[in-house]
Amino acid sequence: MRILLILAALLLLFAPLQSPSHAGGLRPHKAECKGAVRAEDASFDWQNKGPVQFLASLQSDTTGQRTVFCAHEGWIRLGDIPELIALLASKTPCSSVASGFSSLIDAGSTVGHEAAYLIEGFRRGSYPPTLNSTTWRADVREIMAWWKRRRGELPPSSGGRE
Description:
By secondary structure, this protein is α+β, with helices and mostly antiparallel strands. It has 6 helices and 7 strands.
């Protein structure tokens, strides 16, 4: 009986992230995972929580690095961007983020930098957008110009990503 309970608990913990496409939850999206889903990735409820909640979870360890073993496509939504823009200037310490494909350990970041990294994930269509948030360089002026163009406040630029 005890073994059945343990197996059921493990199934509930890992089953939602093993599927490459998630139909349930408040934030259904595609998640391409590297190998078996690790407990670190399963510790955040990607299907029901958004980027601002993820940033809050990063603040619980201000000197660490969170490894994200799945590429979450479509998880960050256009409606999340205003809240992330509002956090760009934050110098509050938090963990950095690394893709499961990265071998670099480079811990520690700020909420503002990670908010910019989440915006970059929206722009590229997948989170995390690069191997490491610490090696990616945020250009807040460019992000703000992109956001103003996106909202129709500036004419389109001759290049760049939309």
